[in-house]
Amino acid sequence: MGVTAKIAPSMLSSDFANLASEAERILNCGADWLHMDIMDGHFVPNLTIGAPVIESLRKHTKAYLDCHLMVTNPLDYVEPLGKAGASGFTFHVEISKDNWQELVQRIKSKGMRPGVALKPGTSVEEVYPLVEGANPVEMVLVMTVEPGFGGQKFMPEMMDKVRTLRNRYPSLDIEVDGGLGPSTIAEAASAGANCIVAGSSVFGAPEPAHVISLMRKSVEDAQKNS
């Protein structure tokens, strides 16, 4: 597979009052990306962070800021997030069926990398047009919990979606998010996921570096055996 392991700790599980130092600490522990959960309190019940926080964090780090937009109108966020210094912009397929072409084009025009996410109840076929279009997304995020709440249990039945995507798109970045940690990583990695979002399992660990390297090794081992 022409994809590399990327471990993306979810900053939602970090100490928000010390975001810059938390980012630096977790990058020093071996994180590849920083996963930023942007929720609008409408598409999902929680209200988290927006462009101002991304802009503030960007002043303190050169890291890839992997932004996952759980929002009802992602188009409204493209310009502010581009200006703020976001790296990746992942929107939800459920609310973008009619305008994803425009969304992808705008995301790319602002220098960000487009991705599409799907909730547990959404069938994997919904994202095919976005990966196969003339101007495709570059990552698919398979939610392994219902978005909007932290600390939920990993849903192993979502691995069928990951397997289907990996078989169909050998070189696509496939991200999983929700309940990932040492006890669930092997299942996700063997299904074909290469971008791993992990929150409490990393930030709540006595040694986050150990958890990050364990998850990376799991992805790399699965790729060798595929």
UniProtKB/TrEMBL annotation:
KW DNA damage (keyword) present: no
Principal EC category: isomerase
Annotated residues for binding of substrate: 10, 68, 148-151, 179, 199-200
EC number: 5.1.3.1
Cofactor section: Fe(2+); Mn(2+); Zn(2+); Co(2+)
Any GO molecular function: metal ion binding
Cofactor binding description: Binds 1 divalent metal cation per subunit.
Positions of the catalytic residues: 37, 177
NCBIfam families according to UniProt: PRK05581.1-4, rpe
Protein name (database record): Ribulose-phosphate 3-epimerase
Organism: Citrus clementina
